[in-house]
From TrEMBL:
Residues 64-122 are annotated as: Disordered. Residues 79-88, 107-122 have a biased composition (Basic and acidic residues). Residues 95-106 have a biased composition (Low complexity). It comes from Erythranthe guttata (Yellow monkey flower). Keywords: Membrane, Signal-anchor, Transmembrane, Transmembrane helix. Its main location: membrane. This is Uncharacterized protein. InterPro entries: TBL (IPR029962), TBL_C (IPR026057), TBL_N (IPR025846). The chain crosses the membrane at residues 21-40.
Length: 476
């Protein structure tokens, strides 16, 4: 309004009007000269920014993400996610890579292979934990890290080097998760991680195989004291310097069993599907960590009991007894074992089944495992019966985890199935014994050579225990 007033002042004051126009012109010129250099760089940057967003959205287009072929998974696509606190939620590897690539500004890889600082705290919060169980076997020319001459814990039937296996390339691989690097086993670091702790392996002879691999890897820095009773099947090893002990407890069915013929392992077993095996459940409160596993024994002839009543059998001759599949007893065994674990105090890991690799026939009809290298994940998959057993493990684990939330249960996934289905080359075959004249000994395509692929299980174990320590430190 003042401007309008000045414009209608009498003509007797023209100088004031000319002065106002000059000031306005100077201000306008200054404004233009200031805006031009500011505007055009901004416009250029804006166009670049817009282009980067377009590229980002293109790379995240679902149609551009490659699909990868993996061993068959259970029908429920979220089953592993519910069973494992550490698994990312349904993120294909390529999508995760695209997201990482497009969520950074100056974080292209540097010359040293490291990534630069991310542009936003939100990106860091959204970063998923690496899924350790989805990956491939990659060459590792530095392996193995012990031999049959440096480790005394290798049993003959796993001592492939002693019995003349000619190819040694099966020892030159390591497990590489899709989304991260898995550190190789560090014996000193591991012992520091478990200082003052107790670790138990519960299961069949493959659980023993795993325990022996761990002791062999630790043998590069020290040897434990065997505190086991003479002639005891179960063993206790103590690393006195670290106040750390390892137990192996034989419980191939995980539940209470009886031999139908005392002392004869070839005859059927009675399985009490709803009863604890006190050989390990009675000690569960003494273990900081426990790894349970079971597999091959469930394909043997057996009788099934619930509430001390015979309700069925597997491969039994009686026609008046209900014949049930092996998955029936397998499900009940894990359900009962998980019930015991949810009442325990430590952290329990379910190590999922490790498939056998008999080719050319079953184990008792000349089946063998003669391959000398691993499969790629798109070259093989689980056989139907293994798929069923694997699914049972994950389903029962999911149920147990939900039930354990109210009781403080700490049940974690240790998925060895998808990695070990790729390793037909890692079994002893005929190299677990010397040839015997006029006698045919079945080839061993169930256990694992030491050194061998099973050593990678302890790379995984080390990382899983590190994650547990981190969780505990966050709580405290």
């Amino acid at each position: 309004m003042k401007l309008q007033t000045s414009e209608i002042i009498p003509l007797s004051k023209p100088k004031t009007r000319r002065k106002t126009r000059t000031v306005v012109a100077i201000v306008a010129l200054a404004f233009i000269l200031t805006i031009i250099p500011l505007y055009f760089p901004y416009s250029q940057n804006y166009n670049q920014l817009s282009l980067s967003f377009q590229i980002g959205f293109q790379s995240l287009d679902h149609n551009s993400i490659r699909s990868t072929t993996t061993p068959p998974q259970p029908n429920n696509p979220n089953l592993r996610d519910e069973a494992s606190e550490d698994s990312p939620k349904n993120i294909p590897p390529d999508a995760a890579a695209a997201t990482s690539a497009n969520s950074t500004s100056s974080n292209e890889k540097r010359g040293d292979g490291r990534e630069g600082k991310r542009t936003s705290d939100a990106v860091v919060k959204e970063k998923k934990k690496c899924d350790l169980f989805s990956g491939e076997w990659v060459p590792n020319p530095d392996g193995p890290y012990y031999t049959n001459t440096t480790c005394y814990s290798i049993q003959d039937h796993q001592n492939c080097m002693r019995f003349g296996r000619p190819d040694l390339g099966f020892m030159k691989w390591r497990w590489k998760p899709d989304e991260c690097e898995l550190p190789l086993f560090d014996p000193i670091g591991f012992l520091e991680l478990v200082r003052g702790k107790s670790l138990a392996f519960v299961g069949d002879s493959v659980a023993r195989n795993h325990m022996q691999s761990l002791i062999c890897l630790l043998s590069t820095v020290g040897h434990p004291v065997d505190m086991s009773k003479p002639k005891a099947g179960n063993r206790l090893y103590v690393y006195t310097e670290y106040n750390f002990n390892i137990s192996i407890i034989s419980s191939p069915y995980l539940i209470r069993t009886e031999k139908t013929v005392p002392g004869d392992f070839a005859t059927p077993f009675n399985l009490f599907l709803d009863e604890f095996d006190q050989t390990w459940t009675g000690k569960i409160h003494t273990f900081d960590y426990i790894i349970i596993s079971a597999g091959q024994w469930f394909f043997r002839p057996s009788y099934f009991y619930l509430n001390r009543t015979l309700i069925g059998c597997l491969y039994c001759p009686e026609a008046n007894v209900t014949h049930l599949p092996s998955a029936f007893s397998y499900r009940w065994a894990f359900r009962t074992a998980f019930r015991a674990i949810n009442g325990g105090a430590g952290v329990a890991f379910l190590r999922t089944l490790a498939p056998s690799h008999f080719e050319g026939g079953p184990w008792d009809k000349g089946g063998d495992c003669v391959r000398t290298g691993p499969y790629k994940r798109n070259e093989t998959g689980l056989e139907e019966y293994n798929m069923e057993m694997y699914s049972v493990q994950l389903e029962e684990m999911r149920i147990a985890q939900k039930a354990g939330r109210g009781t403080g249960g700490k049940l974690r996934l240790f998925d060895a199935t998808n990695m070990m289905v790729l390793r037909p080359d890692g079994h002893p075959s005929k190299y677990g014994h010397w040839p015997v004249a006029n006698r045919t000994i079945p080839n061993d395509c169930v256990h694992w050579c030491l050194p061998g692929p099973i050593d990678a299980w302890n790379d995984l174990l080390q990382e899983l225990l590190k994650r547990e320590v981190k969780k505990k430190s966050k709580i405290t």
